[in-house]
Amino acid sequence: MTAVHEWWRDAVIYQIYPRSFADGNGDGIGDFSGIIHRLPALRELGVDAIWFSPFYVSPQNDAGYDVADYCDIDPLFGTLDDFDAMMAEANRLGLRVIVDVVPNHTSSEHVWFRAALAAAPGSAERERYIFRNGKGENGELPPNNWKSMFGGPAWTRTINDDGTSGQWYLHLFDTSQPDLNWENNDVLEYFDDVFRFWMKRGVSGFRIDVAHALRKQAGLPDWGDDGEIKNIGPGGTVAPAWEQPETHDIFRRWLRVLREHSDETMLCAEAWVNPPSELAKWVRPDEMQQAFNFVYCYAEWAPAPQRTVIDQSLDAFGAVGAASTWVLSNHDIIRAASRLSLPYPEGGAYDLIPGLVFDEALGRRRARAAAMVMLSLPGAAYIYQGEELGLPEVIDINPLERQDPTFARTNGERLGRDGCRVQIPWEQDKPAYGFSETGKSWITQPAIFGKLARDAQQGDATSFLEHYRHLLSVRRQHGLGAGSLTWNATARDDVLSYTVNDVTVIVNFGTEPYAIPAGEIIAASASGISSQLGTDQAVWIVA
Ligand code: GLC
Ligand code: CA
Fold first, then answer.
1. What pTM was computed for the model?
2. In Å, how far are 131, 150, 174, 443 from 409, measured between CA atoms?
3. Fewest 10 Å CB contacts: which of 113, 286, 427, 434?
4. What is the DSSP string of 69-119?
5. Which residue's CA is the nearest one to ligand 1's atom 12?
6. How far does the centroid of ligand 1 lie from the alpha carbon of residue 46, in Å?
7. In a domain? residue 489
8. Are residues 274 and 151 in the same domain?
9. Nearby residues for ligand 2 (ion, Cβ within 5 Å)
10. Where residue 86 sits, what CATH number does that domain have?
11. Any idea which ligand is nearest the CA of 18?
12. With contact defined as beta carbons under 8 Å apart, do 205 and 269 qualify?
């Protein structure tokens, strides 16, 4: 028997958000023909794998997280042949591919949901979703008080053929994203086949959307006074929509399906679960292989919180034999180069609220140092497209261009997530900064994206891009992702130092300069660092 190559334990995985990566046909929305052409840039950056946010057939009410057909490509992004061509190019470049699976809900355009609406209450078709009769004399009140994650009620009432009001269905997200019933056998079997379909096409893993939501507490009880399921209750309890123990049986089933095909295919959980000891349950040996460490992502940029989350994570994941999966940004989170300048608690905000003011210089300085922490820690790491360019969160977006359902569902009280989803810039002097030859783009890119374009940064040793590229290459050379971490004593509380393999990492969170101990500096968060480490600066040194 050959040993399983657990590549996911120390891989660096780059997230492509297809609609905003590269547009091949000039309609202003990214697609596979655009992506294929740009993959060599990711090889050059030095990542091991790519995770694709959804590209499946979808009405795009939640940017593709509303899937109408899990086994076909939306014409916006291309065809299955284009996907295969992309896979071939990724293979040629030695990049693994992970795709996104959205099992908590389908689109309301999915054939199953259409059939469910057409069928009677209590029918097999309705059993695949979560339909309930309303409360009140005529069923005019929703079955419970839950609010949608995007604002507004989590229930929508159906209309019968004769125009009368019918049952209600649950949607933790948008109205057009009805939740599936994971107690239903059709649902279980269907997703087994979805995994099989994409494994046959060569993918190495699956990122599982809202993995902690699949099973709901029996009886669907109310949550607090206001039904805000995103809020934590007394004593740290979570809403009955999340983290039900039965969910783990689903993960075990999926792993068996994956292992029919290969020992090198993996599952990565998007699970907003806190603390790390709870999250670690998602990656027990017979469940998933990775779970995004959002506790780390949202930890305050200060020595004690950083050290605590690193320790708790390494302990918790280590206890179940898994590696931690570090992350600083994705398509749902305020971009790190802006977010890290925010004080707490805003710095941990899920999405943008009007009126937040970023200090760009501070954010960038910290983001460069934070990358040195993340990429030196034992475990895997994810990089979100544009993070390597130091892109800021875009705040000034024309309301008419905003597409995140959060914006409309909260009447603009929450701006939503469009600001981290703006098309990334490739060439400073081209239309739409090289995103699309025609210059079209679904959100207008801000002028600052010009000087942040990849070609403007390339070859400039002081740039964000060259910083990331250098860190990735040193990380690989020194095997940091597969190393183990030891803390070092420092003379000050506001300076952290740890050693992974032969590399010592030092970060100065304080305001006073810190004398760098003897050794060769092999990476630094800013140019010109030699003997002193300034505020929010970091170095990697070898003795
Ligand atoms: C996840 C996705 C997010 C999406 C939501 C509903 O959190 O990352 O973008 O809106 O699930 O599918
Ligand atoms: Ca396009």
1. 0.98
2. 22, 6, 9, 19
3. 286
4. EEEEE-TTT--HHHHHHHHHHHHHHT-EEEEEE--SB--TTSHHHHHHHHS
5. 65
6. 27
7. yes
8. no
9. 23, 25, 27, 29, 31
10. 3.20.20.80
11. 2
12. no
